[in-house]
Amino acid sequence: MKNIPTLVRIAAESLIKQVSIPCLNVNVNTFTDIYKKFQQEKFNFFLDEVKRGTADISIQNLNDYDILHTAYLTQQTLLKTRQQEKIKLLADLFISYCHKLKPEHNEKLTDKYEFILQIIENLSLQEFHLLNILYSYEIQSLSLASADNKLIELSKYWDEFIAKAINNLNISQDYVEALLTKLNGTGLYQTITGMYLGYTGNKGHLTKLFYELINFLQKDPDYAT
Fold this sequence. Notes:
Blueprint: H1 4-18, H2 28-54, H3 64-79, H4 84-100, H5 107-121, H6 125-138, H7 150-154, H8 158-169, H9 173-183, E1 189-191, E2 204-206, H10 208-216
Antiparallel strand pairs: 1-2
Helix pairs in contact: 1-2, 1-3, 2-4, 3-4, 3-5, 4-5, 6-8
C-alpha cells in the first residue's frame, strides 16, 4: 500500500519524463535540462506541502487511483504555474481533496475537484486575492445573502473594499474595476444590473460558486458534494 506522497511522486515523475522543449536557437539539451530542473523544483515544493498536509491521513481503505489521478491532473497545472504562492494554493486544494476522500463512491467528489482545479488554473493570484478581499467584507454583512436589494447592503462597504484592494494589490481603481469586470466571466463574481437611482453599474457580489470553492479548500471530511 502506497502513501499519498508516494503517489504524488509517481505522478510527478511521469510528467517530468514528458517535458519537452520546442526547437530553439540554443543548445536544446542544455535548455531542456534547465527547464526540467525548474519543473522538478516546483514538484518538490508541492510534494513537501502535501507531506505536511496529509501526514495524518490513512489511505489503507482508499482507492489509490483516485489520489493518483488527481495528483497527476494537479501537477499538469503545475507545469504552467510559476508563482510559489499559487503552487501552495494548488497543494492546499489537493490536500483538502485527500481529507474528503471516502473508501468508496468518490466520483462526485473527484468531478468537483476537477471542476474547481480548472477554475483555479484560469484564475490569476491577483484575481484570487481581490475576490478574497471582497469575501472578507461579505462574510461580515450577515444580511447580504437574504437581502432583496443586495445593492443597498454592499454599498455600505463598497468604497472601503475598493480602497483596501487598491492598497493591498498596489493597483489603480480603474484596474480594480477592470478585474471585477473580467471576473464576471469566471462565475465567481456577479455585477449587479438594473435601473437604480444613482447607480452606475460598478458594484457586485460573490456567487455561490465562489463560496463552493472556499468550502472545498477547507479540510472537512464531512464535505457534501
